[in-house]
Amino acid sequence: MPTSPALPLIMVTNDDGIDSPGILALRDAMTAVGRTIVVAPERDNSAVSHALTMSRPLRIRRRNQDTYTLDGTPTDCVVIGLGKLLDARPDLLVSGINPGPNLGDDISYSGTVSAAIEGTMYGIPSVAFSLVGEPPYDYALAMRIAITLAETVLADPLPDNTLLNINIPAGKACAGMVITRQGRRLWENSIQETFDPWGRRHYWIGGGTPLRDHGEDTDVAAIHKGLVSITPIHLDLTNHSGLHLLRGTWDLDRMQDKVAPANRGHRDNT
Ligand SMILES: [Mg+2]
Predict the structure, then answer these.
(1) pLDDT tens readout for residues 44-72
(2) Residue 112 C-alpha to ligand 1 middle, in angstroms?
(3) How remote is the CA of residue 111 from the centroid of ligand 1, in Å?
(4) How much is the pTM?
């Protein structure tokens, strides 16, 4: 438990909506760690990524003293929650528990992870939780993992600008935990072709077979081995080795000449 005499304040959100069993499990788990405030989307917002709603107003509804819903995205919930609903800066933000993994390339699409990205942008230690498996999901192990990780992050701060993406294997027992890097998980045949009752063609993205990165130290490999995957995710998406490579090899003056030759000593006064 944290050493502070005051209970830590924990903001709980998700992308599956306020009625998802996963967020109820996460909220219940966090009550063992601190005081919780839930701010979650009214409806399922899976795969909305880091979308911010700017084209319409957002409505808050209060379910009870410490639970709010928003007719927006997970990122909206973090922005409005931190800016308008919480009476103090939270010590921790948790997102999930998502029913289904967020591994490798899934992270780019994930509303669960994006809520934690938004929390990290505000400087709040943030953790995203996802549970691998099939319905009906058993959240008992994931709840114990969430409690342990929340206590650890509260006691031992994360590196700057870094969130944790946690993937928990299906099952009732924890075979082990491992710190991983983000792997690759592309999907083959994930576009389904369908026809409506009038014979018009439609496409439905989903399903298919994941093509895995077999790197032994990846999140994908950890889950394949039945281990809890803990991936530190950095907000800086810059490829730093790629940056040095491009700076050393690309001739930007030559490229500039092609774009605007008149700007480089050939002033045209006509
Ligand atoms: Mg989801």
Answers:
(1) 999 999 999 999 999 999 999 999 999 99
(2) 6
(3) 7
(4) 0.91
pLDDT of residue 270: 47
| Residue 191 CA, ligand 1 centroid: distance in Å | 19
CA of 237 to the centre of ligand 1 (A): 23
**In-domain check, residue 168:** yes
Mean pLDDT of 108-113: 96
15 token code pair: 């992308």
Domain, as residue range, for 161: 9-185+213-239
What is the whole-number distance in angstroms between the Cα of residue 68 and the centre of ligand 1? Answer: 18
Q: What single-letter amino acid sits at 1?
A: M
* Å from CA of 40 to ligand 1 middle: 12
As to burial, measured by CB atoms within 10 angstroms (0-12 exposed, 13-18 middle, 19+ buried), residue 46 is buried
Q: Cα–Cα distance between 228 and 221 in angstroms, integer?
A: 10
Assigned token pair, 216: 């032994």
In the three-class reduction of DSSP (H, G, I as helix; E, B as strand; rest coil), residue 254 is classed as helix
pLDDT per position as a tens digit, 115-129 = 999 999 999 999 999
**Ligand 1 centre from 100 Cα, in Å?**
7
How confident is the model over 202-225, as a mean pLDDT? 87
> How many domains does the structure of the chain reveal?
1
Distance 98 CA to ligand 1 centre (A): 5
CATH number of domain containing 118: 3.40.1210.10
